[in-house]
Amino acid sequence: MAQLDVREKLAILADAAKYDASCSSSGTSKRTSVGGKGIGSTEGSGICHAYAPDGRCISLLKILLTNSCIFDCHYCINRKSSNVRRARFTAREVVDLTLSFYRRNYIEGLFLSSGIIGSSNYTMEQIVEVARSLREDHDFRGYIHLKTIPDADPELVHQAGLYADRVSINVELPTTGGLKRLAPEKDIGRIEGAMADTKTAIIDTRDARKKYRSAPKFAPAGQSTQMIVGADAATDSDIVGKAASLYGRFGLRRVYYSAFSPIPEASSVLPLKRPPLMREHRLYQSDWLMRFYDYSPAEVASAADAATGMLPLDIDPKLAWALKFRDRFPVDINRAPREMLLRVPGLGTKAVGAILSSRRWRRLRLDDVARLTVSVTKIRPFIVAEDWRPVMLSDRADLRPLVAPKIEQMELFG
Prior knowledge:
Oligomer: single chain
Largest sheet: 7 strands, mixed
CATH architecture of the largest domain: Alpha-Beta Barrel
Radius of gyration: 24 Å
């Protein structure tokens, strides 16, 4: 096989990393400065954009160490039996690439994952070596996110956390049955055990730093995970329950959802079609309800269809919940507590904060609420204001068509 240069490896391994949703990229038109015209390019292989908690957009070099793997997970394009072009970076090449991109101001950090080569321990050693070299040999102070391998020695995973800002351990599928069927070489016990060890290390080092400022940091940006949606028979209720369990037991910062995408020469046990991308979007919205709107997992799951366990695709989970529990509404915006205001469709956390602050000084009218939201039409059936009471709207049997987003025909030549 012909020896690949670094640019060819980058093209292969950056493309292979796109299936990891833990670091989503944004799209733009292709532009290049080849030929001496202009400066810069939008076609840099492996550069993606992630967002910090404060909203800053961070450019990351997102690559795999290798797309070779000794495992044969049915849903993975890089599985052992897959007929794809293989490539592998050395630890030194990843370090040099990261520094080169960083010095050119293309990136602010590194996102590194890998297929498993040789053994889990050997692969984890290579990943840790990249982070160690960047931090210790080159005093690299940018962001580093490492995907760890739960089968690896716990000490190696611990070392990864000492060098990385964030670590992630993928649970892969929402159910134990789905994991056994589609990834028989992976074990949910080992995956969750590694998550528990990481959580313990994060808490221990946080406590140590309260006493000793010289104590080392361990994954200060926390840990995250990813679940594939639509590859098995798991319902949205199953996925919401699993996510809530992971947040509660392991203190995760994020659970990412990735809609299953059919792969070349796929196994016969996989579905022939990918699920609607809107399903992935609805799961992120339900995740948001649990994390920022104080919904319990049971409340979010109750928004799903009782027969199928699936969230509706045409309306968001918050509106679906409100329509299902009409007896909780309308809510008086001048008197209702924060937890009930957060359940009003169309009111976000900032709008609720503004309502709580403003009503201390005067009673709010419908126009006041309209200034805080995109669509007052969606809100009107669910609130009572100083000059508004939804007398006829509250009891209408056909309320859903009135508040659901309107389907618009897009223009061919807009």
